[in-house]
Every structure is written in structure tokens, then in C-alpha cells.
Amino acid sequence: MTEILCQVESMEPLTPTVTAVTLRPSVEVNFHPGQYIEVIMAENDRRAFSIANAQRTDNKIELHIGASEQETRSLEVLERMKEGEIFISSPKGEAYLRREDPNPMILVAGGTGYSYARSILNAALEGASNVNVTLYWGTRSLNDMYEYQLLSDLALENERFTFIPVVENAEVDWVGKTGWVHKAVVADHQDLKAFSIYVAGRFDMAKVARDDFYTQGLLAENLVGDAYAFI
């Protein structure tokens, strides 16, 4: 497997537990929106992170890494990155954007699974397609939704894009959707047969979402997500 040396260009906190990391690879790296790379910590220790951007002309790669005392493996990666360089794998994954798919798209992201959806969203809106894209992003609180305002503004500017934030722990003045993010999709769409859905988040969420989406008529070939190779 190819190992690519990257300079760590920046590390910026997005929330107390999420850090945006920008990598500058030493060689050109081409990828499909929705793919991921593995950070190589040791010969048999590779840790996967979704690429958070669409392909850039400057070849840089952005990662959104969630790390806390409960996510020590990600903390270790951030500590290693502070050294200024890191080796990554070539891009991997089959759950990437289907550019020729005519179906309207629903992106379902839980927590930092948003980085996967973000790459697909950016590419879909930049391309020539006229397909409508709806993003459901679920977080514990609105403070965890670090690009809430950016996405809200984008939805006002682009008629093909709809942003639906979902929070688990709503503040008293919150008037949006609450609860599990995939349940918001089910509540909004009684028939999912005509849609393609991309899912990123915890495996337990992905499994329950798959079952509920199928009940709502989603065709199996129109459900996309890396988790479904394992569950």
C-alpha cells in the first residue's frame, strides 16, 4: 500500500472536541468525494478519517478529527501530528459520490460523520448536476454543530441545497428538529424509493437507519455508507 508523507500545515479547534487538520501531501493525491485516508501510526496501526473537502487545486487534504478522553485513539493521532508531519495511506473506500446518479440526494451525518457528508456536498454543489441535495446533520447540541451558520447561509444561497440540523439536547429556544438524526429523515419522507441516501456516523446508528429507511421504501442499491461493508 502506498504511504504518502504529509506536512501538517495547520491544526485549528472547531469545538472543544473537534480539530480541523490541513495536510499538504508530498505528492499529488486524487480521490473521490466521500473517500477516507488512514493515518499510519505504526506498521500495523492505521486509523481511518474521512476527507472533509472535495478535490482542491492546491492538493491539500482537510480532516475533522473528533478527540476526547473517550476517544483516546484520535487524541494520539493529534499528538503525533503536532510533530509537523505524518504518513497517510492513499484514499480508500467505495462509499463515494455517484456523479451520474439522477436521484435527489439525502446526506445523513452523525457528529463528525459530517466530514464525509461535507466532501460529497461540496463536490455535488460545485458540479454540473442539477440534483437536489439535503443534509441532515445530527449533534448532541447546537454548539457541536460547528458549521451551522455556514450551512444555513449556503442553503439560502443555493436553491438545490437544503440543510436540516437535528440536535439531541435542545435548548429551550430551539425550534428545529430534535432526537436521532435518521428519525428526522423518516419523519420528513414517507416514501424514500426515489432517493439516494449517504450515511456516516456510528455503526449502531447506521444499522438502525438502514432498517428504518428500508421500511420507508428505500432501495438497497441506493443506500451508501462505509459502515455497510461491516454491518
**What is the CA–CA distance across the termini?**
25 Å
Strand element count: 12
Going by helix content, strand content and strand pairing, the class is alpha/beta
Strand order of the largest sheet: 10-9-8-7-11-12
Structure, briefly:
By secondary structure, this protein is an alpha/beta fold.
Written account of the structure:
With 231 residues, the chain is an alpha/beta fold. The protein has helices at 72-81, 114-126, 148-157, 181-188, 203-215; strands at residues 3-15, 18-25, 36-42, 45-50, 61-66, 85-89, 105-110, 133-139, 161-167, 177-178, 196-200, 223-224. Strand 8, helix 3 and strand 9 form a beta-alpha-beta unit. It is globular, with a radius of gyration of 17 Å. The mean pLDDT is 94.
Keywords summarizing the entry:
single chain; alpha/beta; 231 residues; 5 helices; globular; 32% strand
Write the layout of secondary structure elements.
Elements: E1 3-15, E2 18-25, E3 36-42, E4 45-50, E5 61-66, H1 72-81, E6 85-89, E7 105-110, H2 114-126, E8 133-139, H3 148-157, E9 161-167, E10 177-178, H4 181-188, E11 196-200, H5 203-215, E12 223-224
Parallel strand pairs: 7-8, 7-11, 8-9, 9-10, 11-12
Antiparallel strand pairs: 1-2, 1-6, 2-5, 3-4
